[in-house]
Write a structure and sequence with these properties.
Elements: E1 12-19, H1 21-34, E2 42-48, E3 52-55, H2 66-72, E4 76-78, E5 86-88, E6 92-100, H3 115-127, E7 133-134, H4 137-147, H5 153-159, E8 172-174, E9 177-187, E10 190-198, H6 203-210, H7 214-223, H8 231-234, H9 241-251
Parallel strand pairs: 1-2, 3-4
Antiparallel strand pairs: 2-6, 3-5, 6-10, 7-8, 8-9, 9-10
Helix pairs in contact: 3-9, 6-7
Length: 264
């Protein structure tokens, strides 16, 4: 089979939208609900305004230090996907990708469905002068197994209250530090893949919000800087949000970006 080059005409692109995070959550749900065979896949770029804390589907608000939350006056939201706590706002760029169920990038294997997404981000960041890589499934599994070991389990449970403190398959990292986090919601009519690109890693703020005791906050302050990194630290020059968006959309048009058979 021959591969086909994608173009902007192959996608419905919703330009960067700055709004309350609940607006983004609701719109993502609406876009996914509207997916149907033959419809165009969608790119939806977003940033939260005001800043807030987004919890995974099964996370309880008690994971947050209530006193710190009141002090920072942050709203709390719940996403439909799994994972743990993420700070949203000016330091995070969001991208939602909605694929109808018949799209070639929708794979039977859930894990492999992330591959093209992570690889496209690696390509995009390379265009911006930042060399990254994807986390392999074997590497992600090994890290999860390590975190379950008795000698580190309690410590890891605290650190992993922050979503960017652990790596999953095909997420984008420099060394072991996460730059782009991924999650997915899959339904019969289509898939919603979500990326959060760290423009700046607010590890100190997260330690304040997620540590319930002085010991927990000290642990988070010690561990979180080594778990993730923002583009502001990685780049040797200033990078704008629009440059990031352009780099991803250009990378999506490369000849192998939508090759179905290479991921089967």
């Amino acid at each position: 089979m021959q591969t086909q080059r994608s173009s902007r005409q192959d996608w419905q692109i919703i330009p960067l939208t700055s709004a309350d995070q609940q607006v983004h959550i609701t719109r993502s749900e609406q876009l996914l609900s509207a997916a149907a065979p033959g419809t165009l896949p969608v790119l939806y770029w977003s940033q939260a305004q005001p800043a807030g804390m987004v919890l995974g589907f099964s996370q309880k608000e008690t994971i947050i230090n209530s006193a710190a939350l009141a002090e920072e006056a942050l709203p709390v939201y719940h996403r439909r996907a799994g994972g743990t706590a993420v700070l949203v706002g000016a330091d995070l760029l969001g991208l939602d990708v909605v694929l109808p169920a018949d799209h070639p990038l929708v794979k039977t294997d859930i894990v492999e469905s992330y591959r093209w997404f992570g690889e496209t981000w690696v390509h995009a960041l390379h265009q911006l002068g930042i060399d990254t890589r994807v986390v392999t499934p074997a590497e992600a599994h090994a890290q999860r197994d390590l975190a379950r070991q008795d000698e580190v389990r309690e410590r890891e449970a605290v650190v992993r209250r922050a979503c960017y403190a652990s790596n999953s398959s095909y997420e984008v990292v420099v060394g072991q530090r996460k730059v782009v986090g991924l999650d997915m919601i899959r339904r019969r009519n289509g898939s919603l893949l979500q990326a959060g690109i760290l423009l700046s890693w607010q590890s100190e703020r997260l330690a304040h919000l997620l540590g319930h005791t002085a010991a927990e906050q000290n642990l988070l302050r010690s561990e979180l800087p080594g778990r993730a990194v923002g583009l502001d630290e990685l780049a040797q020059h200033s990078i704008t949000v629009q440059q990031i968006i352009q780099a991803f959309e250009t990378s999506l048009q490369r000849p192998d970006a939508q090759t179905a058979e290479r991921h089967l």
